[in-house]
Task: structure prediction
Amino acid sequence: MNTFLISIALLLGITSCNSASQKNNQTENTVSYEKMGSDTLVNFENETEGKLPSGFVADATNKAKSIKWNVVDDNGNKVVEQQAENSGSCYNLLVLDKVAYNDFSASVKIKAISGEEDQGGGLVWRYIDKNNYYVARYNPLENNFRFYRVVDSKREELKSADSDIKQGEWFTMTIEMKRNKVTCSLNGDKLIESTDDTFKSAGLIGFWTKADAVTYFDDLKINASNN
Result:
């Protein structure tokens, strides 16, 4: 009798562990946040040089040698700079913490400073975690502007357009997201229009570069439409 009861207990324990393991392995398409975002303008004039800007969290998709974002001076104007020299499919991330957006229009000023493997950068949105989000980026080494989704840390190109913005030139990237439709612009020119249903719920917004791309970001403007 005791042997029978012990066997049943062990079986129930194994079943419970398996169920917990399956639950933990599931990726939920939701993000933890404290509030839905409102219209926002972020610059770095009141931030301390050499430090991470307040209200942001730095991370990386895939293996990173280092994670390093700091406020720096650019000819009397404070900007935030991605400084880590990573490689391969390492995506450097700096996201606004605890504030989520669903439908919105966002713009940011970007300047590619250096990078042998990669240059430039862009915006991430509907960011669930470091492995799941949308991103649009411009790369002056390749002269292309691309829209991707990143799912379980793997990047998939959804659409691409050509552009000729040079390294060292400031440019403005604008992203408009409404339901499943995205419009991506450079310096006011709409270059990419696409639809995708991978990430439907609200997520964070932030900055992105790849590998060793040292890049300046400034004047992030977000107009929310969270109805």
In short: Confidence is low (pLDDT under 50) at residues 1-28. Residues 2-24 form the longest helix (23 residues). Helices lie at 2-24. Residues 1 and 207 are 63 Å apart (CA to CA).
